[in-house]
Each structure stands twice: as structure tokens, then as C-alpha cells.
Amino acid sequence: MPTVLTIGNFDGVHLGHAALVRRARELAGPAAAGGRVVVLSFDPHPLTAIRPEIAPKRLTPFERRAGLLRALGADEVVRLEPTPDFLALEPERFVERLAAEHAPAALVEGDDFRFGRGRSGDVETLRALGRRHGFEVAVLPPVQVALTDQTIVRASSTMVRWLLAHARVRDAALVLGRPHEIAGTVVPGDRRGRTIGFPTANVATDDTLPANGVYAARAVLPDGRTFPAAVNVGARPTFENARPQTEAHLILPGAGPEWRPVDGLPEYGWAIRLRLIAFVRDQARFASLDGLVAQIRRDTQRARALVEEADGLFAPDRGESPEVLKP
Predict the structure, then answer these.
(1) If phi over 0 gives left and psi between -120 and 50 gives alpha, with beta otherwise, what is residue 8?
(2) How far apart are CA 77 and CA 69, in angstroms?
(3) Is the peptide bond before 91 cis (omega within 30 degrees of 0)?
(4) Residue pLDDT, tens place only, 77-86
């Protein structure tokens, strides 16, 4: 039963990661015939153990990451904890440990793969050690992605974070192969939205947020129902001393002017996922409440149109699992 490994952070599970898993699957052969693809994923990022002050925020929690990787064809996803002792292993000891634990027939990596103490090992080091330990090394070229402005970029977690930080969620989706998600729990807010006809679900989350602004999203509820949503991330400049937060106005069919909880759900404490589809506008301060309400109405109409426009652009998400949806 050949086992093929691929090792890395796999944060975000973007198109470059998909290419690694796909190639590993080809080398391992079908699971039904006994071939196994094992992904070794560092979590949290190794920089948290070396230089925590510059460690990037996670794009995907490990459970969600593992689900996405299994959907791509991995048979097993193993969490590698980046302890100081583990990161201090010399390249030779690092590979010896992999060989002893997994007996791989092959390893699949990108051309920028580095490993071992001080990132001193590269793909040539890995090839030499592979010959010594009896496994093949397949090195893939970078996956290039054309963004909406026709810029060509390398698919990487760093690029996804940069795009999100610049409100370019549509481009981030192109690099990921699916919309970026914010997953969290609905918690009490100041309840202003329900008094002006636009109630919001206030989302407590540890996920990476895009730049402050208003976005079109598709909201996924715990029972699998989905609705278009207009999402505000960050401050609310019209209200004095309003704390920054992430709030989603769900565009529910047949909803009237009076606030009511979402059918089948309590007021608070339920899990929600927001798939970011497109940027709508920057945040702005309005001179009156009437001006704000008029703008929210326009935002809602625009968000609905953008979400409907985007439906069908991405393959169905097969990476969902019930534990991810628990609050």
C-alpha cells in the first residue's frame, strides 16, 4: 500500500495546495486499490514558535483545513505541532523521522519547499535524502493565477492574506479556488440594526478578516441553509464610540420590517459562516440616520445581485463537516 506524503502549512488550502494533493493522489493510485495520500500540516504556523510577533494569522482553522484537504483527495491529514525541538531537527533527522513514521513511497512538494533547522534543507536536499531512504521526490512548479486586473500571481497563503488586507476578496477567491470564509458564533450586539429595519448577526470570530468595509457574502447556517448577506467589517463611523465588529445582515425571503429570529434558530449562540463574494464599498460616516438607512438599502440590493451573479462560479464546497459548524 504505497503512501505518498506532502508536507507544509496548507493554510487556506489554495490552488497551489490543491495541485500538491492532486499529484500525490496520482502517485499513490486510487484509495480503493490501497494507495494512501497523507498530508502533514503544521498548525499553528511555525513562526509562532520562532518569532510569534510576526506569525501570520491563520486563514483556516485546522479542522476546516483538514476537511478541505480530504475533499481534494487526501486520505489522512496529520497535524504537526511546531515545537522548538521539532523545528530544531537537522534536515537528515527530519527525514529520518518521516521515513520511520510513514515509510513513504514518495514526497510531493513545491519548488520553494524548505525544511529542517533554520530552513536549511531544500528540494535538492530532500531528493538526496530520498534516495538514501528509498522514496521518490516529485517537485511541482508554482501555480500561477490571473487576477481580475490581469495580474499574474503565484498562488500562496501570503498572497491571499495580502489580497484580503486590500479588500480584494474576489481575487482572493481566485487564488483559493473558492470564497474566503469567516466562521464564528452569533453573539449579542447593540441591536441598532433591528430598530432601522436591517437586523444583523454579530459574529465573534478568530478568522482572518478582510480590510474594513462592506462586502457581499453568502451566509451558511448550521443546518446548511444559505442566504445572501451584506456584511460590515470594522468600525461603524456614523455611531459615536461604536466598537469595531463583524456583522451580517441576512437577506431572508419574505422578511418584513419587524425583527424576528431566523426560523429554527435561537437569537444567539449559533454558528455561522460567511463566504465573502465581493467588495461593495468603503465605510463612510453619514450625516443622518435616514442617509445611513438609504445607503444600507442600496448595499443590500447590491450584495444580493453580486451573490446571485457569483453563484455557480465555484465548485460545490465538499469540505464541510458538522464539527466545523458547531458554535
Answers:
(1) left
(2) 7
(3) no
(4) 999 999 999 9
